[in-house]
Amino acid sequence: MRNSQSPLRQGMAEEPDNALTRRSLIGGSVAGMTLLAGGAKAQPTGRPPNIVFFLADDLGYADVACCGRPDLTTPNIDRIAAEGVRFLQAYANSAVCTASRAALITGRYQYRLKIGLEEPLAANLAVGLPPQHPTLASLLRKAGYGTTLLGKWHLGYLPDYGPLQSGYDHFWGFRGGALDYYTHTDTTHKDDLWDGDVPAHENGYMTDLIGDRAVDAVNTYAGTKQPFFLDVHFNAPHWPWEAPGDQAEAERLRKGSLFDYDGGTQRTYQQMIERMDFQIGRVLRAIDQQGLADNTIVIFTSDNGGERFADTWPFTGRKTELLEGGLRIPLVMRWPARIQKGTTTQQTAIHMDWLPTLLAAAGAAPSPDYPSDGIDLLPVMTQRAAPAPRKLFWRYKANHQRAVRDGDWKALKINENSFLFDVAADPMERVNLKDRHRDVFDRLTAEWDGWNANMLPEVRESFTDGISAQHQADHIGATSVSSEPDLSPGWPQ
What we know:
Radius of gyration: 21 Å
Helix content: 10-25%
Number of domains: 2
Number of helices: 10
Distance between the termini: 38 Å
Strand content: 15-25%
Number of strands: 16
CATH topology of the largest domain: Alkaline Phosphatase, subunit A
């Protein structure tokens, strides 16, 4: 049953982390935090931490048990939370994958790059992450790390773009936005499995294959004694809706659409998540067996909000939408040497924070020529610092969407409608306070305009995607999206 208790606000005591009401799993204010008091170990000396970054694809905020989903089990993701910190106010940089991944890897607003205008990258071979742009992988490699990406890339195609061109020593996975879990073909039914820059052909369920290679990578790096950055980017639980054992669905889709609008069930979706969790557990055991757990940072999160079958409670909205459900993501992190276990934080966090955060943990720093738009989250997690105030901005070309969050306030534009919400008191974004708090609305929208003036403008040529009533009945009246950019000055009043 959904818990109807009013959300927490600044100055109110939080429930213990093991009180798993669904309301307690989200909290509500940007300012409150469960302090990391006592018990966190001193910073290790000498060897910098290893980093393992698990990224799910299209996972909803509440699609893991520790974030409130009651009808599936995710013991290994829950273990990361229990042994570290769970973020209650975590955001994606975009409501779709390519743009969020660009922000994650560069530590900057994605709208500073042409690749960040793709929502998501479709078939445009001329656009990609510029190899000369510093990335989290390239900066960690410069600091002495071994770097590996397993799974999804989706930031540009060969010959000009790819993981090996952007800081990774090793890559095994796929380059496009979606992959059949069994045939390993993309949305055009072409093979898209790669070992480095060489096409690969292997049998097996993609989630399992990624897990196998992640375990191998941990064991190999442990033997070299080199600190490592292991990016494990699952395609689960992205469509097509194929759970372990669903080879028949893969065969059916050989002649159909990988978008799989006529397939899937809640149970299939749950099994896809549970299999991903199982593989995460295998990697955690490998870290334990190699004696690396104490000084290995492990992070689990999603690239954007949930899609068709996702649980985004208590938010509304989905992938491709700047409503909270399209942006809020699960986020858990552990670092036993530095972070007290079993804690939560109300610190607002976003994908682009991970570059400065993980570089700081490694004793490195962002390139001065490409300063990060994110912040270092370590002081809040390791030094009992108060949560840092945040002001975050978004835009999304489909349906001419804009958003800004400052404290508990959020201004939102969708086509010709505009809103002001207190997302702490009203996480479902039902109560439009624009007229009651016109001063707040005017301030936030003016600040969005000022921020947007420093980003690349939207262009007609970039791809954008959205949900139409043709494919999802709960989007009554929603038409196919337009590629026209939103260049209008000001916001609807």
